[in-house]
Amino acid sequence: MAYDVVIVGGGPAGLSAALALGRARKRVLLCDAGTRRNAAAEHLNNFVTRDGTPPGEFRAIGRQQLAAYPSVEARDVRVEAIAGARGAFQITLPTGAVEARRVLLCTGMIDEPLAVEGFRELWGRSIVQCPYCHGWELRDRRWGYLARGAESLHFPIMLRGWTRDVVVFTGGAFDVPADVRAHLSAAGIQLETRPVARLVAREDRLESVALSDGATIPCEVLFAHPPQRQVDLVRELGVGLDGDGYVQIDPVRRETSVPGVYAAGDLLTRMQTAIVAAASGAQAAGMLNHELTAELVTGGWSGGRA
User: What pLDDT is attached to residue 285?
Assistant: First the structure.
């Protein structure tokens, strides 16, 4: 079976791309398998018309809407390998191989839990990454931020827009410059440099942060940006990555360093919210449709971008 585009990943980016390509009458296979990054999240927020929607419901609505387009097929299946070249890719699935003219990666990122007792259990509930996604629901509570470097200390100042009570935990892992200390103090943010021993929870919700000397700091919400890595499939393809490990793409065409392989969503940036990922998928789909249509009707000319 030959497709115009095989999309790898069925989150907001993949669903958005599949919708745009389906409306453009392109033959699409959307492959979705594995655990969602936001599996622990209870609601998807800050997404116009879908604010507060449970993630599973959001995906179900997306799949339901795709069903209206006969050229789009969605499967709960894992892509095992991608071979071939632009215009003639072979995509290996557990059920066999399919062919595609283009591939769109919407695989997201894999979060690596920090080595703090209780972190993994509270991730996605009391420990979150994005205040735009969760800040409103958690406003006016005691917030903390697990900082991994001095370069990230602009982030907690933004958190003050949602609550007056913010503590930055450095664990003593790095020095905080005097001017940064002054900015944090001026913003009313407490700086805690003692090592963090563990996170104390009650009924699966964070209650406090225990320090190595036995002290505890009351904390109900913890923001953290743990290390992330690409899924194995992306690394095996050998697409170019930037210094932080995110996939590099042409800013206009949305194509990676591997010809014919495009990317959209969280694997491109730390700015990881559902609505941004969906917009990224729509952008990639627009460029894919433009180039695929140009190949069919003109033999390849696409206004200087072929």
Answer: 98
Give the relative orientation of helices 274-298 and 12-23 as an angle to the nearest 10 degrees.
Answer: 30
The span from the CA of 237 to the CA of 257, in Å, is 10
What are the boundaries of each domain within the chain? 2-110+227-298, 113-224
CA dist., res. 89 & res. 17, Å (int): 19
Q: Which of 184, 195, 115 is nearest to 150 (CA)?
A: 184
Q: CATH 3.50.50.60: does it fit domain 113-224? A: yes
Q: What is the pLDDT of residue 147?
A: 97
User: In the chain, which stretches have pLDDT less than 50?
Assistant: 305-306
The answer to whether 294 and 302 are in contact (CB under 8 A) is yes
pLDDT at 306: 42
Q: Work out whether strand 216-218 and strand 205-211 pair parallel, antiparallel, or are unpaired.
A: antiparallel
Q: What pLDDT shows up at residue 42?
A: 77
Helix (H, G, I), strand (E, B) or coil at 298: helix
Residue ranges in 72-177 assigned as alpha helix (H): 119-122, 131-134, 155-159
Give me the CATH topology for the region 2-110+227-298: FAD/NAD(P)-binding domain (3.50.50)
CB-based contact 174:149 (threshold 8 Å): yes
Burial of 218: CB neighbours in 10 Å, binned 0-12, 13-18, 19+ = middle
Question: Which amino acid, residue 17?
Answer: A
- pLDDT at residue 205, rounded to an integer: 94
For the stretch 76-88, pLDDT in tens is 999 999 999 999 9
Q: Is 169 exposed, middle or buried (0-12, 13-18, 19+ CB in 10 A)?
A: buried
pLDDT value for 300: 65
The pLDDT of residue 11 is 95
* Amino acid at position 107, single letter: T
Rounded-to-integer distance, Cα 230 and Cα 219, Å: 31
Distances (CA, A) of 221 to 47, 122, 143, 190, 214: 22, 10, 5, 15, 20
What's residue 37's pLDDT?
66
